[in-house]
Amino acid sequence: MTELDRETVKENDYVLLYFDERRKWLTKALKGREFHTHKGILKLDELAGKFYGDKIVSSLNFDFWILKPTTYDYMMRVERPTQIMYPKDIGIILLKLGICSGKIVLEAGTGSAAMTIAIATAVKPEGHLYTYEVRPEFAETAERNLRRAGVIDYVTIRNLDALAGFQEKNVDAITIDIGEPWRVLSHAYDCLKGGCPLASFSPTVNQVERTVTALKKVGFIDVDTIECLVRTMRVEEGKTRPSTTMIGHTGYVTFARKIFR
Question: Are residues 65 and 93 in the same domain?
Answer without folding.
Answer: no
